[in-house]
Specification:
There is one protein chain. This protein is α+β, with helices and mostly antiparallel strands. The chain folds into two domains: 49 residues, no CATH class; 170 residues, Thrombin, subunit H (Beta Barrel). The chain is built from two helices and twelve strands. A hairpin with a 5-residue loop joins β6 and β7. About 2% of the residues have low confidence.
């Protein structure tokens, strides 16, 4: 039964193929006004209105599917564009950060020009990895320590973190572990540095102003000294008679610039100075690991 059905279907298919070939041959051979051409035109006249009506009826559906497809495609393109935008933004941010760090590192490594024979002090460059969370910014942590020859009491210098050209002293090593060290900044009340103006017109001790650690003062200035606004203050490189400072700071390290002088000419005149280095933005420092005796 199955074989008969299959043979019947094959015979019908063969008959249809043969009929189609015969009709096509006859259609192409007969003139334009032949019977087959008349039949074709008649079928088209009947079918065309049906096709046009179906096309009009289905057009809103087609437009809807087209709109949905375009919307989905547009959303996909938008998501891809946002993803690429975020990637480029991340890359740009990293590049800007790297450029800023490289600029500061170059300035930090260029501190040799600020101090004569800087190589004699055995400078060790380190990155800041931690900072005091308080308003006073009294301490920072760096990524090098005793394994790099860093010990407590060593002076620390840095470049201006704001993009300027200034460099100077920022503090001294307070504690040192194998791979890290804590730097106590010059804004800490326990830090005092023997200092003088570059012109030699005044000498004293730099320390934070009471109640305002961001404002440094040059304390113990003699009545006969003549400090003036705008003068640069540097390390004296000597032990002050009015303090118990150890002479760990090389001479002529820039510290800051005098912004005003209270009670100028009086016995208790007090110059105020702003540090050259913004201590909140320091990223790299140099620790001076060797002590040089300049009195020989």
């Amino acid at each position: 039964m199955y074989d008969k059905t299959v043979r019947r279907r094959r015979a019908v298919l063969g008959a249809l193929v043969v009929s189609s070939l015969i009709l096509l041959t006859a259609y192409f051979r007969e003139p334009g006004g032949g019977a087959l051409h008349h039949v074709q035109r008649g079928i088209l006249e009947v079918v065309s209105p049906i096709q046009e009506g179906a096309s009009r009826a289905l057009k809103p559906v087609q437009d809807l599917f087209g709109w949905v497809g375009d919307t989905v495609s547009a959303k996909g393109d938008l998501q891809e564009a946002r993803k690429e935008r975020d990637q480029w933004r991340t890359i740009a941010t990293r590049n800007a950060s790297a450029t800023r760090e490289n600029a500061q590192l170059r300035k930090t490594l260029g501190l040799d020009a600020a101090v004569t024979d800087m190589a004699l002090y055995g400078p060790k460059t380190a990155r800041v990895i931690g900072q005091s969370p308080t308003l006073w910014y009294a301490k920072i942590t760096i990524d090098k320590g005793s394994s790099s020859g860093i010990r407590a009491g060593m002076p620390v210098i840095a470049s201006d973190g704001k993009g300027g050209q200034d460099t100077g002293l920022i503090g001294r090593v307070d504690q040192a572990a194998a791979g890290t060290a804590v730097i106590r900044l010059i804004t800490d009340s326990t830090v005092a540095v023997a200092a003088r103006t570059v012109t030699g017109s005044a000498m004293g001790v730099v320390k934070p102003s009471p109640g305002n650690p961001r404002d440094l003062i040059l304390d113990y200035v003699a009545k006969d000294d003549t400090p003036a606004t705008g003068q640069t203050v540097v390390t004296a490189g000597t032990v002050s008679k009015t303090s118990e400072l150890d002479s760990v700071y090389p001479p002529d390290l820039p510290i800051g610039r005098i912004t005003r002088v209270d009670d100028q000419g009086a016995a208790d005149q007090t110059p105020h100075l702003r540090p050259f280095v913004d201590l909140r933005r320091v990223q790299f420092v140099q620790v001076l690991t060797e002590k040089v005796d300049h009195n020989r």
